[in-house]
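Lab notebook, bench 4. Continuing the backlog of folding jobs that were queued last week. Each job is logged with the same field layout so the records can be merged later without manual cleanup. Today's entry covers Diacylglycerol kinase family protein, a 310-residue chain. Filled in by technician R.K.

JOB TYPE: sequence-to-structure
TARGET: Diacylglycerol kinase family protein
LENGTH: 310
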Amino acid sequence: MNERIARILVVYNPMAGRRRITRLRRFVQGLRAGGAEVTVAATGHAGHGRILSRDAGPDGAFTHVVAAGGDGTISEVADGLLEAMRPSFPPASLSMPGPVMGVLPLGTANVLAHELGVAFAPGDNARALLSGRWRTIWPGRIEAGGQARIFVQMASAGFDAQVVNHLSLRAKRVLGRGAYAVQAIREAGRYDFPPLQVVLDGQAHTAFGIVCSKGRFYGGRHVLAPEATPLARGFSVTLLDEPGAGPIARVALGLLCDRPDRVRGLRRVRASHIALTAPDGLALQHDGDPSGGSVPCIITDAAHPLRIAV
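JOB STATUS: finished
OUTPUT FIELD FOLLOWS
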């Protein structure tokens, strides 16, 4: 095995559950069987994955930093790696310093893993990581309330952000992806669908919900934006043009059938700079977790790309 990929930090979300700990152990065993030196660090609170990966830094201590968890853990690790790279990154350069990021999907939806074809089986994932293959992705950046966070798959405001912000961790552990459907039914009767003012690359729009996608998939392997890719700059922006539970039900059916183009009142626009304003307190979410801020916000590409092991 190439010595360059021998030192690996695994950032693990212990909320993943007992069955997933077994998968983590098999993954680590596979890495060590391949000759890698492996350090496992468990997150202790929201945002801890960002701190752990930031401290791994571009100083050569680790050649890979692996996010072992769900999409929220992945976005935290990506955020920390990009922060660590910032001082050493040549402007406008693709000569990327720092560790390659790995992904061991252990979460509820695992959208980025589906998007990039990352192996779910721990042994296969370990072998793929040690092979040295990687792809370059361009994460997104959401700025609200003076704070900025990185996301790798999507960010949104409106009904689905309301669902994410009110969803309990216990429900996710018990019901998995079904928890989102249950919470959506609860929110459909009480969410009032305030209008959002959306500016996409200088063009003004009004919508009752917005999803800014880096990739095709939403909530697992449901196709929302078939033209989107995390391998390029920019976003596919999905706008909900009609308020109410009826349009939301149509969107849900369109997602289940992987036919978003046939949903009345839903449209997509390609954009690189998104500015949102709405009534104060309208929630935001990114990569399936609350963003910790609210509209108004600005969404752009991250300053630099990331290498993801595949």
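OBSERVATION: The chain has a mean pLDDT of 90.
SIGNED: R.K.
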